[in-house]
Specification:
- The protein has a single domain, classed as Rossmann fold (3-Layer(aba) Sandwich).
- It has 274 residues and is of the alpha/beta class.
- The two termini are 28 Å apart.
- β7, α9 and β8 form a beta-alpha-beta unit.
- It has an eight-stranded mixed β-sheet with strand order 3-4-2-5-1-6-7-8, with helices on both faces.
- It has 13 helices and eight strands.
């Protein structure tokens, strides 16, 4: 039996948000999907595995409050429960990316169970949450590998721009390789089209190409270009806290509902409550 098993009523669905290409709305989706899932009633943990720490910033966590986070958990053996901190969104907690995380990629190379560090750490606290979202760095290195080994689901934010589909095939190969060798439970469960602009024919073409290639793994919900999303991040808030009536907020709420239905997260919640 593999080290990673499917989620159940007693353990959360762990979802890695991954794309080795930067600037595709990955962290924005991680922040706002986590907040929307928490708002829907799920107990959510967001793990910031990106050394840039943008998910931590987007939830209003300053650098001084990140001295003990993902690096301490992966490298120093800190218990996950000891590095979790609350956010301003009820039901949403965070393990922040501390400043030393940038060095973890190299330091993990010689570590024991280097691919399983995150898996082992989250196993200590998994039953406390309905779902755990992992914001991966824009690369396919050891930090992302740790996320893929810990997760059951991968969701890929895909920008509606030229060259958007380039590189996705490499990520798909990586997911398949991890599933074959390290984590048989891992599945590519969704492609989220981001920065969609209905006024731009290119957005429609990219969406059509993605649906023709990935089929029903492409989420129905489209995340639009919306200035409120960017403004919210600059204020350290999810967009639904900043402007809950904006098109960006409504889109992420719709995406959360789709993710709940697609991955059966509501069933996990009911199972815990019984």
């Amino acid at each position: 039996m593999n080290d990673t098993e499917n989620g159940s009523a007693a353990s959360p669905r762990i979802i890695a948000l991954a794309n080795q290409k930067g600037g595709v709305g990955k962290t924005t989706t991680a922040i706002n999907l986590a907040a929307a899932l928490a708002t829907s009633g799920l107990k959510v943990l967001l793990v910031d595995m990106d050394p840039q720490g943008n998910a931590s910033t987007g939830l209003g966590v300053g650098y001084d409050a990140r001295r003990s986070g993902t690096y301490a958990m992966l490298e120093d053996g800190a218990r996950a429960a000891a590095v979790v901190q609350p956010s301003a969104v009820p039901g949403l907690s965070l393990i922040a990316a501390d400043t030393e995380l940038a060095g973890a990629e190299l330091e993990l190379v010689m570590a024991d169970r280097r691919e399983y560090r995150l898996h082992d750490a989250l196993a200590q606290i998994g039953a406390d949450y309905d779902t755990i979202l992992i914001d991966c760095p824009p690369s396919l290195g050891l930090l992302t590998l740790n996320a893929l080994v810990a997760a059951q689901s991968v969701i890929v934010p895909l920008q509606c721009e030229f060259f958007a589909l380039e590189g996705i095939s490499q990520l798909v190969r990586t997911v398949n390789s991890v599933r074959q060798s390290l984590n048989t439970a891992l599945k590519l469960d969704g492609i989220v089209l981001t920065m969609y602009d209905r006024r731009n024919n290119l957005s429609e073409l990219v969406a059509d190409d993605a649906r023709s290639f990935f089929g029903d793994r492409v989420m129905e919900t489209l995340i639009p270009r919306n200035i409120r999303i960017s403004e919210a991040q600059s204020h350290g808030q999810p967009v639904m806290n900043y402007d809950h009536r904006s098109s960006g907020s409504l889109a992420y709420q719709a995406l959360a509902s789709e993710v709940v239905d697609r991955l059966g997260l509501h069933a996990a919640r009911k199972g815990k409550a019984s």
